[in-house]
Design a protein that fits this description.
Elements: H1 2-22, E1 28-42, E2 56-70, E3 74-87, E4 95-109, E5 113-125, E6 137-150, E7 157-170, E8 177-191, E9 194-207, E10 215-227, E11 231-244, E12 250-264, E13 267-279, H2 280-285, E14 304-318, E15 321-333, E16 340-353, E17 358-373, E18 377-393, E19 398-411, E20 418-430
Antiparallel strand pairs: 1-2, 1-20, 2-3, 3-4, 4-5, 5-6, 6-7, 7-8, 8-9, 9-10, 10-11, 11-12, 12-13, 13-14, 14-15, 15-16, 16-17, 17-18, 18-19, 19-20
Length: 432
């Protein structure tokens, strides 16, 4: 009898282990492998002022791997691309670019307890005051793990407790840091489309180098969210505190708001504003870095500044045509009087499907930036960037594109005046 009970227990244990490993009876897996090439012929690849322009052709073979696996307990996602940059005339040293992100999420208790491990690799400007070229780049690797505990999603109230540790590594070693964060969020649904929330989050940022200022921050916020069939509104108020070693405590009120309105089923407008204290490590950890983003000073992940931003946008689909308009204004204000950045930007994106397999895309951006540069007075830059290209889908797995780019920079400092024209050809094929 004991032997039979032991055998049954062993079978149950084996079944549980099998469930954890396989994620259940059904698991959906997607895997994509894409290879390709992009060639860019530029008349000023380093974006230098006259008479220092240098022509070059940049060859970029590329491979991209993306995967998703959804299971009962474990979910895996990943999307990484590898590019080799080869400068034909040796304007810069050949290098490689590896960007992407991946995550493993474990649902330990359905809808209540989750644990995850994630990795992100990206690039940003080493110093946003200087021109975007391969010399002015830094690689950022972030590995983090965290747990989230939630009450059962029943009734109108819900609470969530989170804890997270993030290790951030940069090719600029003074930026290396370890960030620990704990947070509590309480939400109450006051109506079918309205939610009120209170959140508190505490963070500790420890830099690897002893001479870089460590800091602690505390954020508290009250938010009101309403999402209707056509109109969505979110408002927030709160307070930020940042305490840095050997420096005054920074504290500021927080204000935020966003609005989205569907004009038609295929078009809508958005608007938003925000005012809060920002620390540079939190900005890079957000994962919102785009090419050309960076910090105001090399090795300056310890920077803390007050951010004030406004943005508006429009998206519309009209038959074969998609149109997007955007505008934004942003100010970074530091506690000293000689650093700062103001940015205004307007942009247009347009795509038109000429035939089932041929498309046309147009992108145009105008950016104005005003820098407060230490020891060099103020500087104002204007940049106009535009790109037009034709795309061809030569079958379900093969894509070609051919286009041109125009990049023009004007500045009160002659060292930042440049014009670059380039022709870009690309080819990509999905192998899996």
């Amino acid at each position: 009898m004991a032997s039979g009970a032991t055998g049954a227990g062993a079978r149950r244990l084996a079944a549980v282990v099998g469930l954890l490993v396989s994620g259940g009876v059904s698991a959906a897996t997607e895997f994509d492998l894409t290879v390709g090439y992009e060639g860019r012929a530029s008349d000023n690849v380093a974006r230098q002022p006259e008479p220092n322009e240098e022509e070059d052709i940049v060859h970029q073979p590329e491979a991209r791997v993306a995967f998703t696996r959804d299971e009962a307990v474990f979910d895996f996602t990943g999307d990484y691309s590898y590019r080799r940059r080869i400068f034909q005339d040796d304007t810069f040293r050949d290098d490689f670019v590896l960007n992407g992100s991946g995550a493993l999420t474990a649902t330990l208790v359905p809808e209540q307890v989750t644990w995850d491990v994630s990795h992100t690799r990206t690039q940003a400007l080493a110093d946003a005051r200087f021109i975007d070229n391969p010399i002015n780049q830094q690689e950022i690797n972030t590995t983090s793990t965290g747990v989230e505990l939630r009450t059962r999603p029943t009734g109108r109230n819900q609470a969530a407790l989170t804890g997270r540790i993030a290790d951030q590594r940069s090719s600029i070693e003074t930026n290396n840091n370890l960030r620990s964060t704990a947070g509590l969020t309480l939400t109450r649904r006051t109506a079918p489309t309205t939610t009120v929330g209170v959140s508190v989050e505490a963070s500790d940022v420890d830099f690897e180098e002893d001479f870089v200022q460590d800091y602690q921050r505390l954020d508290a916020r009250l938010t009101l969210s309403r999402q209707g069939a056509r109109l969505g509104v979110e408002l927030g108020v709160g307070y930020n505190w940042v305490e840095r070693e050997g420096a005054d405590v920074l504290d500021n009120p927080v204000f935020s708001g966003s609005l989205s309105y569907a004009l038609t089923p295929s078009s809508g407008v958005t608007a938003g504003f925000e005012r809060r204290l920002v620390d540079q490590t939190g900005f890079t950890l957000s994962g919102n870095l785009e090419p050309g983003d960076g910090v105001l000073q090399q090795g300056a992940f310890a920077n803390v500044f007050e951010l004030t931003s406004f943005n508006v946008g429009y998206n519309g689909e009209f038959g074969r045509t998609n149109v997007a308009l955007r505008g934004s204004s942003q100010e970074q204000e530091f506690d000293d009087d000689f650093r700062g950045l103001e940015t205004q930007q307007v942009g247009l994106s347009l795509s038109y499907q000429l035939t089932r397999s041929i498309g046309f895309e147009l992108l145009a951006d105008f950016v104005n930036q005003q820098f407060g540069a230490p020891g060099a007075g103020d500087r104002e830059d204007d940049r106009v960037f535009s790109q037009a290209r034709f795309t061809l889908n030569a079958g379900p797995r093969t894509r070609f594109s051919l286009g041109g780019r125009y990049d023009d920079g004007d500045s009160t400092d002659p060292a930042f005046v440049y014009t670059e024209r380039s022709i870009v050809l690309s080819f990509f094929r999905d192998l899996i």
